[in-house]
Specification:
The chain has 11 helices and 21 strands. The protein is α/β, with parallel strands linked by helices. The structure holds flavin-adenine dinucleotide. Flavin-adenine dinucleotide binds next to α1 and α8.
């Protein structure tokens, strides 16, 4: 067993873990990261694509905003739609805040490049990760590295940024958990075609929800509501484009959906999950390790980044000034924001997905008409979608 001593041991090199390492380094705190997957695998996972204002501000503040400014696409708002009607909500007019289209893949590449430039210790392709002595002031993480050597990292603090399947969440004694599984999934595609819209279209349709999103000027990202357990093989490219055309209103008021070559197809289950507290002794949780939201509100990645934004000052005070106040408050402070985003994601999901229940369909239409015709309704959606301040 090789032993190593750092201030912070981070489990998981996704956006939460890598941003945490980056921000800690800026405050002079040394960390080591362990990750089961390869660097390329983590960087190429197609996931989130919308950054809210606070995320963009945080990335700029720590030197990670250059490519985002050059290659990202600032959006003023979104379109909300149901059969025969499409309305634009302008977040900038409503709240003074906007969102950016910039893929999680790109955020991850920027983080990896910034950490590589500073020689960050990252162990990729590890196995058998285990957390130890979390209730002492010498917690540790053990793992088998890519060459088969057993290693131990002894730290002052361990942070679990290991997503929904990692071991960290299970190290919290007697957590309270809340979970909701939705009775539908998303079929998501990436297509080599210019987006048919300037901003995202969220469409309710009796056949099911559809979303027209994008990754760049030449790559579109689109989603269809499908039943749970859908086999992607049942959905030919033609069937996908036909369903998207119907649900997104091809031909309505002269609008056309341009189909293109599909390069990626996958089915995503929809789940809400919260585990509390987000701290156990010298273990802190951040990101998907503590909570999952359905993607309808574009909150998963943003919430992971907000957790890190709250955790860093807490760890800096704890490790540099021996001041535990922010660390002691971290779980409650983070969970307040987690529940706001959990509610918003659930609200957007239930407002936009079809269930086949005629009573619920009328409620959905009533809610959509209110959100798009009342300034108060529109502002509520805009404030949540463009994102509340990290310290909310
Ligand atoms: C398929 C999919 C699609 C998504 N689409 C969207 C979307 O459209 N919009 C949106 O806002 N959000 C989306 N999300 C959510 C968003 O991607 C996540 O919220 C975000 O990745 C959270 O970042 P994280 O760093 O907390 O966790 P992750 O990105 O999951 O990173 C956790 C890391 O920990 C590593 N790990 C796990 N176990 C161990 C272990 N034992 N030892 C060491 N390392 C370990 C994992 O390999 C992983 O790299 C999607 C998520 C998924 C899974």
């Amino acid at each position: 067993m090789t032993d190593r001593r750092v201030q912070v041991a981070i489990v998981g090199a996704g956006p939460a873990g890598m941003l945490l390492a980056h921000l800690l380094a800026a405050d002079g705190i040394e960390s080591a990261v362990v990750e089961t997957r390869s660097e390329d695998y983590v960087a190429s996972r197609i996931r989130a694509g919308i950054l809210e204002q606070s995320t963009v501000d945080l990335l700029h503040s720590c030197g990670l905003g250059d490519r985002l400014t050059r290659e990202g696409d600032r959006h003023r708002g979104i379109y909300l739609q149901w059969p025969e009607e499409r309305h634009h909500l302008d977040f900038v007019d409503l709240t003074g805040r906007s969102v950016w289209v910039y893929g999680q893949t790109e955020v991850q590449k920027d983080l990896v490049a910034a950490r590589a430039a500073e020689g960050q210790e990252i162990h990729y392709e590890v196995s058998d990760t285990a957390l130890h002595d979390l209730e002492t002031d010498r917690p540790s993480v053990t793992f088998t590295d890519a060459s088969g050597t057993r290693q131990r990292i002894v730290a002052d603090v361990v942070v679990g940024c290991d997503g929904s399947f990692g071991p960290s969440r299970h190290a919290v004694a007697d957590p309270a958990t809340w979970e909701k599984t939705y009775p539908y999934s998303w079929l998501g595609i990436l297509a080599d075609v210019a987006p048919s819209t300037d901003e995202l279209i969220y469409a309710y349709h009796p056949d099911g929800f559809a979303l027209h999103s994008m990754r760049s000027a030449t790559v579109s990202r689109l989603y269809l509501q499908v039943p749970n357990e859908t086999d992607v093989a049942e959905w030919s490219d033609d069937r996908i484009w036909d369903a998207l055309a119907v649900r997104l209103g091809h031909g309505q008021d002269g609008w056309h959906l341009e189909p293109g070559s599909i390069t990626d197809k996958s089915v995503l289950p929809m789940r809400s999950f919260v585990s509390a507290p987000m701290r156990h002794g010298r273990l802190f949780l951040a990101g998907d390790a503590a909570h999952i939201v359905p993607p309808t509100g574009a909150k998963g990645l943003n919430l992971a980044i907000a957790d890190v934004g709250l955790l860093v000052p807490a760890l800096v005070d704890l490790l540099r000034k021996d001041d535990p106040h922010l660390a002691d408050a971290y779980s409650d402070t983070a969970l307040r924001r987690v529940w706001r985003c959990t509610h918003f994601s659930w609200w957007m999901t239930t407002m936009l997905h079809a269930t086949g229940d005629p009573f619920e369909e009328q409620l959905r239409l009533s809610q959509l008409r209110w959100v798009t015709s009342s300034e108060a309704g529109a502002t509520g959606l805009a404030e949540n979608y463009a994102g509340l301040p990290i310290g909310f």
